[in-house]
Amino acid sequence: MKALIIEDEYPAAERLEKLIAKADTAIEICAILESVKAAREWFAANPAPDLIFSDIQLSDGLSFEIFEKTLVNSPIIFTTSYDEYAIKAFKVKSIDYLLKPVKLQELQQAIDKYKDLKGEPTGQESALKLEALLDVLPNSGKKYKTRFLVKSREQLIPVFADQIAYFQASNELVLLVKKDGKKYLVDYTLEQLEKMLNPEDFFRLNRQFMAHLSAIDQIHTYFNGKLKLELNPRATDEVLVSRDKAHVFKSWLEG
């Protein structure tokens, strides 16, 4: 059985390849591709694999873009670190999804699920599945958090999501920074906030910052394909977006 890995982070791809070898020695990895462009070119020149393991966010876009213009009959197991709104869709529309870091037991279960399938889907079925998946992504029906209750001395103050400029993590504490510059501690991690807040309005810039669209004041090109941002109100620390995330960030800005 031949499988394809689509993953833009080399350590993650290498780890997944080793886990697959442990989960099923009969699986041969025919290629590891790191971008939408590379995947499209590969599918144009090679027969489809039996199974695809695909990350969601690649260096030059989302992996869904690969399948929009390329007819692929192979079942897909998605891997992801976030985007909870998409995870719910994958759970219904695809074979399985694996949260990073991928665990061996979960990987084995996903492969077993593939083996239990009776026959491969037709091209039309694959197209319908992908169309349904893409339709679900922007409108998952999830109710996002719209307000927080923060404490200031002896007062409890309601803060609405559209009043928030950004969240900043520092020394295991997370600050909520309002557009008027006021700051409050919140009892959530950035990982939790990323799942709670509407991804159309908030973006996880890096490990330290998660910002509202309206707080992005200026964007500068930086070393090695990174982006340097200026937020409003101004952040106390430098705000960088990695090269790997820059494309997704710019797509988010465009809407």
Automatic annotation (TrEMBL):
User: At what positions is 4-aspartylphosphate found?
Assistant: D55
Q: Which Pfam families match?
A: LytTR, Response_reg
Which residues are in coiled coils? Answer: none
* A Gene Ontology molecular function term of the record: DNA binding
User: Which keywords fit this entry according to its UniProt record?
Assistant: Phosphoprotein
Q: What's the superkingdom here?
A: Bacteria
What sequence ranges are listed for the domain HTH LytTR-type?
A: 148-255
Q: Which PROSITE patterns match?
A: HTH_LYTTR, RESPONSE_REGULATORY
Q: Which InterPro entries match?
A: CheY-like_superfamily, LytR-like, LytTR_DNA-bd_dom, Sig_transdc_resp-reg_receiver
* Domain Response regulatory as annotated: residue spans: 2-115
Question: Record's Gene3D superfamilies?
Answer: 3.40.50.2300, LytTr DNA-binding domain
Name under which the protein is recorded: Response regulator transcription factor
Report the source organism.
Rhodocytophaga rosea
Give the taxonomic lineage as stored in the record.
Answer: Bacteria, Pseudomonadati, Bacteroidota, Cytophagia, Cytophagales
